[in-house]
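Example 9 (inverse folding). The structure is encoded as follows.
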């Protein structure tokens, strides 16, 4: 068996140990005579999966007791609409920090729903950095302040989250959830599609403060109300049971690796290998993000000629690398180095980058 050096942006690498464990349990889950996919989501076995995934996430991330953990569908993209649907009110706009392609999409959806305010934007810097705390202006009447913790396409990441005072801070953590310690109590709501750092696509994790989601407007459809899912332990309708099961395996894997602080160090070690190659290339490779905002999840970089970029991708694919092409909207190159990407993949990429430069520099 050969496993690719998988640098896909999402869906992305899943730990080999997790895939093998799922394979072992695939046909007959805990002696049930069927797979987890084939059993009722009301069964005791599935309830255990649902509860274990929540309690592991609570333990690993230090989620306080007054927060609910929900497993929803529709991806992070549905959260772009669900957040304003549940929280924006007349005279209480949603405030947004505009930092790139994903923040932009969140803003576009929010505008369809109600009043929005831009609290800060780094568009004039081509989204190559995150704003500083001083740049973010939060209106007193804001229903919330929304940030994109990690811009997956641009390759920028927040290292100091804004202080929003009494305004609930909401973060799209789709591409960096569980990659580093976070003080959950500083947030009103955190959400993430699973397919980057938590497992397969199909489930979206929402971590939300009780009081913020207790009373969703009854004028919005039942499935779009946080209160519906909170009061039914994410079992109001049929959940994406296999995806939730896979998330529970990934959480167990993180726990086995020592937890989030260890993940953080591991991710720093991995990305350093590649950022160092960029910085030591005498300008052959050009990092896209400004150094203070460089993402530890998505490394975006360029080569001075597009011809060489094409050649880089072509040759890398021949050597077993997958997913190094930049997002179609921005071009260039991108290496996504989520939790499940092994150190060996990053070592191999650093070596490939050095060799490629030697041949073409
Ligand atoms: C991938 C991504 C999304 C979109 O997620 P879907 O699950 O495909 O809807 C949203 N925000 C960020 C930051 C992402 O990386």
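The amino acid assigned to each position is listed next.
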């Amino acid at each position: 068996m050969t496993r690719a050096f998988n640098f896909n942006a999402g869906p992305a690498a899943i730990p080999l140990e997790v895939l093998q464990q799922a394979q072992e349990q695939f046909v007959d889950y805990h002696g049930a005579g069927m797979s987890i996919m084939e059993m009722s989501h009301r069964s005791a076995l599935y309830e255990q999966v649902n509860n274990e995934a929540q309690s592991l996430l609570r333990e690993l991330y230090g989620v306080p007791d007054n927060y609910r953990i929900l497993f929803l569908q529709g991806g992070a993209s549905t959260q772009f609409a669900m957040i304003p649907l549940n929280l924006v009110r007349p005279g209480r706009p949603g405030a947004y920090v505009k930092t790139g392609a994903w923040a932009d999409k969140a803003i576009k959806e929010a505008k369809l729903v109600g009043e929005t305010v831009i609290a800060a934007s780094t568009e004039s810097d081509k989204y190559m950095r995150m704003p500083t705390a001083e740049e973010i202006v939060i209106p007193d009447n804001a229903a919330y302040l929304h940030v994109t913790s990690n811009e997956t396409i641009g390759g920028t990441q927040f290292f100091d989250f804004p202080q929003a005072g009494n305004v609930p801070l909401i973060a799209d953590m789709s591409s960096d959830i569980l990659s580093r310690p976070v003080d959950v109590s500083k947030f009103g709501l955190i959400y993430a599609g699973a397919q980057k750092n938590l497992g397969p696509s199909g489930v979206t994790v929402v971590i939300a403060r009780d009081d913020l989601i207790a009373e969703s407007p009854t004028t919005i459809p039942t499935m779009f109300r946080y209160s519906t899912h909170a009061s039914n332990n994410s079992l109001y309708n049929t959940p994406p049971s296999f995806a939730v099961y896979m998330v529970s395996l990934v959480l167990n894997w993180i726990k086995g690796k020592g937890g989030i602080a260890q993940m953080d160090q591991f991710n720093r070690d991995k990305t350093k290998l590649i950022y160092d190659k960029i910085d030591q290339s005498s300008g052959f490779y050009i990092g896209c993000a400004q150094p203070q905002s460089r993402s530890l999840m998505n490394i975006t970089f360029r080569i001075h000629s597009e011809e060489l970029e094409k050649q880089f991708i072509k040759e890398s694919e021949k050597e077993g690398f997958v997913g190094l092409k930049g997002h179609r909207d921005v071009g260039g190159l991108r290496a996504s180095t989520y939790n499940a990407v092994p150190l060996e993949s990053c070592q191999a990429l650093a070596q490939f980058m050095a060799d490629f430069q030697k041949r073409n520099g």
